Amino acid sequence: MQNKGAIRLFAILLVLVSLYQLMFTFQTRRVENVAKEMAGGDAEKEFAYLDSIKNETVYNFLWVARKYTYQECKEREINFGLDLKGGMNLILEVKVADVVKALSNYNTDETFLKALKAAEEAEKNSSEDFIKLFGKAFSDIDPNAQLATIFNTVELKDRVSYNSTNEEVLLVIKEESTSAIDNAFNILRSRIDRFGVTQPNIQRLEKAGRVLVELPGVTDPQRVRKLLQGTASLEFWETYENSELFESLVQADTKVREMEAAKAPVSEVEEEAVEETTGDDTSLVDQLAADATSADSLEAASATSLFTYLQPNHPQQRGPVVGVALSRDTAEVNSYLANPSIKSLFPKNARFFWTVKPIEKDYLVSRFGNDVNDKETAYQLVAIKVSTHDGRPPLEGDVITSARSQTNQRGQFEVSMSMNAEGAKSWSRLTGANIDRSIAVVLDGFVYSFPTVNQKIDGGQSQITGNFTPEESQDLANILKSGKLPAPARIVEDTVVGPSLGQEAVDSGLTSFIWAFIVVLIYMLLYYGIRAGWVADFALVANMFFIMGVLASFGAVLTLPGIAGIVLTIGMSVDANVLIYERIKEELRSGKGIQLAIKDGYRNAFSAIIDANVTTFLTGLILFLFGTGPIKGFATTLMIGIATSFFSAIFITRLIFEKMLSKNKTLVFDTKVTRNLYKNLHVRFLEKKKLFFIISAIAIVGSLASLTTRGLKQGIDFTGGRTFVVRFDEQVSSTDVQDALTAEFDGAHVETKQFGNDGNQVRIATNYMIEENSEAIDNQVEAKLYNSLKTFVKGNVTQDEFLANYRMSSQKVGPTIASDIKKNAGLAIGFSLLVIFLYILIRFRNKEYGFGALAALVHDVIIVLGVFSVTYSFMPFSMEIDQAFIAAILTVIGYSINDTVVVFDRIREYFKLYPKRAKDEVVDAALNSTISRTVNTSLTTFVVLLVIFLFGGEVIRGFVFALMVGVLVGTYSSLFIATPVTFNFLNKKKQKK
Predict the structure, then answer these.
(1) pTM higher than 0.85, yes or no?
(2) Where in the chain is the domain with CATH 3.30.70?
(3) pLDDT of the residue at 697
(4) Most buried of the four, 282, 602, 687, 838, by CB within 10 Å?
(5) Rounded mean pLDDT, 661-671
(6) In a 3-state reduction of DSSP, which class is residue 415?
């Protein structure tokens, strides 16, 4: 074996890296278990504790090399998907069509409205952006029509004139719509930061205007929906100067100290003070101690005060900022300032808002000292002055007509802001009354900027300066434009998984994983003997370890389908070991010694292993590119598993065997039972090809007939709709539940199905009001769900209790999302078939092999679809066609081509070995030589899937069933469809020559 030292070094490094990465997960689990015990089941207390220690060291790597805080460990741990730990998954959309309407001031021009409608229809089947489609539709409807007449509005008059060409107007519309979407994204991001969840995820999706939001562990989905869909509230406020409130702040500090001191006995206060002064962060305590000039002041400093959490600005410091607090302390400051006895110390019209942007690192260190953690953030507290009788801001954002980033004469970035006539008057009064003072720009209760007024501003045209970076000036311009946000973000997909259902998914996933792993380990020992079986088992264990380490390294998300992907990898990774072992057995039977047999066995198996792994990896890659959420998680684990299993099977096992040989240990690759199994097989496959073609034709015709007449049971991923899983106190009839729901949902289509094995869970699907995206409709649906099912629940539960304790999960998919999912599903399947055909064409340099493989894949897909079409009405589990099913189809394609490529590889090899023998004899001999490998791989994979099917939980049962059918059909087609079709094409090619 060449490069043995390099391979050994790489294996050791991979082990160390995996162990290093997994330690972060172990540490976070340890800390979180402590938090759970301390909280006693109170989720808010648990989060508060974890938030309070997020910047504390919890892991010393090698004790001296590096210290990691809880937050840093959390960022590096293996992430569980929402289906495993509960939470909320949302897709929000700002419709570009709505933005365009708003930019036109809702113009009613007939050509304009027709073009919008045509563009919306075209967008469903096009990858082009909406603005291009709109421009094309507008020109097609009326080539002489001018967009300038529609978009020369008050807001756009500086950018669109009556002489502007359609291309120039479209460019402006594109920029404005992009700005609106950017703004919506920034607003959503700032709102999400306030939910109090660990590791929230927000990302922009490929389609313009869509944003994916994942919120693990959310306990109040209703609040999330309300806040995310709420209209952005941009406000301009007058401010207090820091010096005007400093005395009040000092009084508040004294009051808080007195209140806290009164809460605990003196001994407790003294103990608390000693703890603080010996801790890591003593800058504030040291400062208070330095300021103390008497015993009284020292005694006062020993108690908690407002200034323990809020560092006040110096009284002579200009501006509206009264203090700075670390992120973890802002909630404590808010609590104190909201206390009536503290509020009374400040002017009645004083209010306090935090800045949305943390202070810069250098300023943070100057305020809190060098001991502050690298990951710490701190925010400024701004004092707002309420100057109106009704408590509303003197000016709101709806008066802004435009705001954009630009550079001034000195080359500095600034923001230019324009207002309408009404706003200009108010702005003139406001700036005139606040010269040399600040005006705070507030959005959703957070201060984004507080520029100082240099002079009274008339005409409504202003420039805001402030050492901005290009990004900062653009962000501020977007924020200023949020007051006229033309289209709010609406939820078009909404999935909620309760924490208990998530825990059950973890339990079922781990159970299936453990049992599948044990089954495969035992099988390899029984089939290949103790030593060879042990080596294969060691490779499997190493493979699992590497998969988890790589998942942690990449920050990948582990989902329930992802666990299925790992378990499936167990079955498929056996294939490489089987290929190698069967090759070694062949070499031994030819009379070679064990050392040479192992060397040649690995060498001869390498080509087939490479081809099989590459084709399956390509399928996983396509699934990753076209899939979303849990399906992307499945693809991730599948691809990682393929890569790590290749390394484990090819290199780690080889190192072990060579070590054994160096110690003269006896190696055998079979047992008494399996020694002569499949030996001397002479099945005449090609003689019976017509029989198999007839069998397949009957199956295909039957499948197509069922697909034509019965169709498929499409899930809400493809149709749009809402689903709920409801768990009752005792067994219920799904028919009774359906009757109650149908009556309440005004006759809308409702379907129910038993979910799980206990008879007390029901899965509900309905298309009721799915065309509507408003929060009011979502609330109405939840109310109807409660009203129709409350009689099935013991006791007099409220709606909130029902939704929290009985509704285990919910999902909403809007029609536009469903349309896109359906389109992506078709593209994924078609693209995967094309990619695999091209790979085989390149790899085998013969299109006949590609045609044979393609015929087998189409055969497999049609039959799997047919089985689902025939059986969906009577199977005791969900057999809906959804994203998971598409993942299953693509996996079946990958598995089938894996099988087919191994067979083709052997046929190609035999053609080279026996060039003078009849081609049909060569093909039959090649097929017979692969039977042992085919049976072993298919059997282990099928058994693994059967274990997942039995123990993996209800959620993925339909998904796994599709894989089970696919393994059987794929194995059959590799032997009886792909090879005969290829043989026929090769014969035709020979006849033409």
Answers:
(1) no
(2) 721-813
(3) 95
(4) 602
(5) 86
(6) strand
